[in-house]
Amino acid sequence: MSIQPVSMSSKSRADRAKLILNGVSKRFGNGADAVQALEPVDLVVENGDFVCIVGPSGCGKSTLLSIVAGFETPSSGSAILDGKKILAPGAERGVVFQQGALFNWMTVRDNVAFGPQAMGKSREASLSVAARYLELVGLTSFSHRYPYELSGGMQQRVAIARALANEPEILLMDEPFAALDYQTRELLQEEIHSIWKRTASTVLWITHSIDEALVLATHIVVMSARPGRIKATFESDFSKNTDPMLTTTVEFADAKRQIVALLRQESIEAQRQEINL
Ligand SMILES: Nc1ncnc2c1ncn2[C@@H]1O[C@H](COP(=O)(O)OP(=O)(O)OP(=O)(O)O)[C@@H](O)[C@H]1O
Ligand SMILES: [Mg+2]
Fold first, then answer.
1. Most buried of the four, 46, 89, 176, 185, by CB within 10 Å?
2. Which residue has the least CA distance to atom 6 on ligand 1?
3. Which CATH class is domain 3-92+171-276?
4. Atom from ligand 1 closest to the CA of residue 26
5. How far apart are CA 104 and CA 171, in angstroms?
């Protein structure tokens, strides 16, 4: 088991591409106040890839995901999903952000059933999908509560259930587990991983946790400090391993060390930028 440097912008990947980012950059604002959040990014994600993106705070990870989600438009370049340019949000993309954005006026159950129902499933079928995913995230007994009655971590689990209930072509996750305790996080990691394997879906996942990236990813993208660029890309086969002691192995520690070393330089640079702001 190891991580191996791999090119993720190569033409060879484009043949089997699910998502293509072609020189995607983002600049917020104008003139002296402008912020270059992303330098042009080239990335090809293949069908079935589980891509984890790591990088220092403020390097443009959420911006990149928002562009793929269709919430932001790139300043240059284009994002293409299944051969079609991304111009707006769509049901084939399931999105979970750093803070779950739920409908506060709907019960937990209706939040999760919303997607299936919007896609034409009957009320009954939608509720049964909702029940299945709420069970998966351990919130069956909160089905009839409203989001504001739940803790932050529980709301995040509802947001995950809601994204999964749409059975999207691609899941876009922005640090979905950041607010969760260690045990819940591990359990949900396993669940997401088994759902990904079962459904052969494609995942783009942002995390600050290198362990999480190594446990889950088929590919790891390391980004540089702002303005974000792709600094390195790796192929990883740790996610194929189901050994519960995986994270304690020498190979795992070796891979982690490589990524930590890359990120350390970037975090120092990111901090320097904050001080000079
Ligand atoms: N709507 C916006 N308007 C202006 N600037 C923005 C906007 N969104 C993001 N930025 C800026 O773009 C840069 C990248 O932000 P982004 O949220 O993408 O970073 P991130 O890598 O997700 O950080 P974190 O790890 O802290 O979540 C930051 O400097 C941020 O201030
Ligand atoms: Mg972010």
1. 176
2. 28
3. alpha beta
4. 12
5. 23
